[in-house]
Design brief:
The chain is α+β, with helices and mostly antiparallel strands. The chain has 3 domains: 359 residues, Neuraminidase (6 Propeller); 144 residues, D-Maltodextrin-Binding Protein, domain 2 (3-Layer(aba) Sandwich), CATH 3.40.190; 193 residues, D-Maltodextrin-Binding Protein, domain 2, CATH 3.40.190. Helices cover 24% and strands 31% of the residues. The chain has 20 helices and 43 strands. α11 packs antiparallel against α12, α11 packs across α19 and α19 packs antiparallel against α20. The two termini are 49 Å apart. The N terminus is likely disordered.
């Protein structure tokens, strides 16, 4: 669902607004089918509704019935991107038998745009550059576009005033399908006269047009939708009650009408502004909830996305059908921004992957595609867009393998799949939580990945990633992405590369100026936070558990509990979410946890602490540990080890090309950082460069060099934690809590912890 945002006065900030506002509602396909069938039947002309829904009450939506379509074809669409871009967004529409795409690219402080009309059958389409300068709009910024008819487009454009470059002017620009101007209408005065825009701030959301060239806008602040005709005159409006929420969605019908969607889930209403009278015709909508995107309506058949599922709704009968799970056919990133048109006995979907610089058309139909083989893939980990998108991308590039992807996030679904695999069946390849790997491997259900991965891939995997999936000397699982947890301390307190819990206790006894243990950035329980870190987090591999025996009844653990209680009580945590390092910089705190999701976060943290930063890690017998945390593990069913295509898919997911597409996550390949850290000679800055030519600037050291060496070193040192570390700690904390927050005797608490953990260890055995 599109969120309303307040527009800023600054023109440069308006550039950011454009880049956030992608994927508006598509126009409908005028030659596609409609009716009560799932996706229609072959038609050669614009379908007419079986019943005029606008003249009667809309039916209550029925229960959604499964009518899943299959991906039968994939057409790659050629398009070009400019050189290095900071960000890329696209607006995708469908009309007639064509798709229309507006691409916008931000390059530092400038924005370029291009238009592409794509034939739905062949994928052919010429891409043309757009220039608001040619339209005589100075500093123009295209904020929206829609198709009026087969020969006419309309663009919503903002530009600087020639008299005052701080003043923003608004225009509706009508062009042909190549962007050649036909007419330009300035709308600034009409917006002001009707109070649609206050001052110079953006407060207008462009919703689209109809087949008469009327444009529809939403006054974000006033909760009113307006219709402006092709001459720039106010032709109608509708003010919806403020308690009904936002009305910033809309869609087109096959006869060219624009339907506005107002209200909140469960209380939707459709509003149609009459082009002749300006009056609002309202239609109550019952039974449809959780809509993320309204696509378009052909005849009686409406298509929309809800909960990442593509659904059809027959507005004559009320029948609803689930046509596709969008994560299984398109990936999460594209599901809501795609354009949809009926085709034959199915649908066509246009998707643009900005992270891959690829665009393609998927054809879905009721016919199951023929394939030489089939690879069944299951995602049990969660909504991983990277995994789903790369698997689906592989399927599109290798259609002969017939990829069958299923998302099994819910516990009951996941348990069913795991049981199937344990019993010798189930999917060929799985993406699942690490704690599930050991049991499946012990059951003999998993194949050894080391036999499938190429030597080139094995040679570049992070040591910690390999360790995380190694059992009994064999590599049975590997993460696709990770992050790192570590501890930072000040070199003024500790200069060694690592430490033990005993080192910390001794340091605290010597340093009177240390007032607090660890900065609590969670804002939850400082006692638990301090205890967990001081024990080193990896408790099953700590001195307090040896060979399956609980050893908490010892002097050192008693000292730990007393230290945590005393120092937590007297410390004043002054950390904030935005500057977690401040207490460490200012002194008085021993350390702060650093969650390294990417090199940018790592570099920013090091920059704040400067030369005083010491990535010491969590205390351990080894002298400090940095922990590699997986974001799901890749495994292969033992029965699929010889299956055609499985080896190719596994290596594809871990390839340099795939791993470079990760965002807000760390690749398991050691060669990724060096491949993606680049130097901008003009700006004398380092930046992280993605394969689609987008990226972000990286903080540098005082001497002008990057933190690449330190970052790579940290990744190489990071190791996985034991599976049940948190479970054991929770057991410890259940009794320790009574010591921290009451006067319960220390010996009694330690005895209870000793017994509780031992029972757990015995049960695990």
């Amino acid at each position: 669902m599109r969120h309303k945002v307040l527009r800023k006065i600054s023109f440069l900030l308006s550039i950011c607004l454009l880049l956030a506002a992608c994927g508006r509602e598509p126009g409908p396909n005028g030659t596609a089918a409609t009716g009560a069938e799932t996706a229609g039947t072959e038609q050669t002309s614009t379908p007419e509704p079986q019943t005029d829904w606008q003249e009667k009450r809309l039916p209550t939506a029925g229960a959604v019935k499964d009518a899943l379509l299959y991906v039968n074809d994939n057409i790659s669409v050629e398009y070009r991107e400019p050189g290095e871009t900071v960000a890329h967004t696209c607006l995708q529409l469908a009309w007639g038998n064509d798709f229309y795409v507006l691409d916008s690219y931000r390059q530092q402080d400038t924005v370029s745009a291009s238009l592409q009309k794509i034939n739905g059958d062949t994928g052919a389409g010429e891409q043309v550059s757009l220039s608001t300068g040619v339209w005589e709009i100075e500093g123009g910024l295209i904020q929206g576009m829609d198709v009026v008819n087969d020969d006419r487009l309309v663009f919503w454009v903002s530009g600087r005033s020639a008299q005052d470059d701080q003043e923003i002017r608004s225009y509706a620009v009508y062009t042909d399908c190549r962007g050649q101007i036909q007419n330009k209408v300035e709308l600034t005065d009409i917006l002001r006269e009707n109070g649609i825009r206050e001052g110079l701030a953006y407060a207008v959301l462009f919703l689209g047009s109809d087949s008469q060239g009327n444009v529809y806008i939403d006054d974000v602040d006033g909760q009113t939708v307006y219709m402006l005709d092709a001459e720039g005159k106010l032709a109608g409006s509708y003010a919806y009650p403020s308690e009904n929420g936002a009305g910033s969605q809309s869609f087109r019908t096959s006869d060219g009408k624009r339907i506005l969607v107002c209200g909140v889930p469960g209380e939707w209403e459709w509003v149609q502004l009459d082009p002749d009278t300006g009056e609002a015709n309202r239609h109550s909508l019952q039974g449809i909830k959780n809509v993320q995107r309204w696509y378009a309506m052909w005849g009686n058949m409406l298509y929309y996305a809800a909960d990442h599922q593509l659904v059809s709704w027959d507005t004559d009968t009320g029948e609803r059908k689930l046509l596709a799970r969008l994560d299984e056919v398109a990936g999460y990133a594209d599901a809501l921004e795609m354009a949809v048109m009926p085709a034959g006995n199915g649908l066509r979907l246009l998707l643009t992957k900005t992270d891959e610089a690829r665009r393609y058309i998927l054809t879905l139909s009721q016919d199951r595609p023929a394939a030489e083989g089939e690879i069944q893939v299951a995602n049990l980990y969660g909504e991983s867009s990277f995994f789903s998108e790369r698997v689906l991308s592989f399927g599109r590039e290798n259609p002969s393998f017939g990829i069958q992807y299923q998302a099994a996030f819910q516990e009951a679904e996941a348990d069913r799949v795991l049981l199937e695999v344990a019993n010798g069946g189930g999917p060929d390849l799985l993406y699942l939580p690490r704690q599930n790997v050991k049991a499946l491997q012990a059951n003999g259900a998993l194949g050894e990945l080391g036999q499938l991965l190429s030597q080139d891939t094995l040679d570049v995997l992070l040591p910690g990633a390999v360790q995380a999936g190694t059992y009994e000397g064999g590599l049975y699982a590997v993460p696709l992405s990770v992050y790192v947890r570590t501890l930072l301390t000040a070199r003024a307190y500790w200069q060694e590369d690592g430490w033990t819990t005993r080192d910390i206790l001794s340091l605290l006894a010597e340093q009177d100026d240390i007032k607090g243990l660890f900065v609590d950035i969670s804002g939850q329980d400082e006692y638990a936070y301090n205890l967990y870190f001081l024990m080193g987090m990896d408790i099953p591999n700590s001195p307090f558990i040896k060979d399956g025996v609980s050893s908490f009844d010892c002097p050192e653990f008693r000292e730990i509990l007393k230290t945590v209680k005393d120092m937590t009580q007297k410390a004043e945590n002054n950390s904030t979410l935005y500057d977690r390092t401040a207490p460490l910089v200012s002194g008085g705190y021993l350390g702060v946890e650093c969650m390294v999701w990417d090199m940018k976060i790592f570099s920013e943290t090091c920059e704040k602490l400067g030369d005083n930063a010491n990535l010491v890690g969590y205390p351990s017998d080894a002298g400090g540990s940095h922990f590699l945390v997986d974001k799901g593990m890749l495994v292969v069913n033992q029965n699929a080890m010889e299956k055609e295509g499985v080896k190719e898919l596994v290596n594809y997911l871990l390839s340099l090309e795939s791993q470079q597409l990760l965002s807000q996550s760390i690749s398991v390949r050691v060669d990724i950082p060096s491949a993606q850290v680049a130097y901008n000679e003009a700006g004398k800055t380092y930046y992280w460069k993605s394969t689609n030519n987008t990226g972000y600037q990286l903080p540098a050291k005082a001497d002008g060099t990057s933190y690449l060496e330190e970052y790579v070193e940290l990744l190489g040192k990071a190791v996985p934690m034991a599976f049940d570390s948190e479970e054991v700690f929770n057991l410890v904390m259940e009794d320790a809590d009574s010591y921290f927050h009451s006067d319960k005797d220390l010996d009694t608490v330690v005895d209870a912890i000793q017994k509780r953990v031992q029972i757990y260890l015995d049960e695990r055995q």
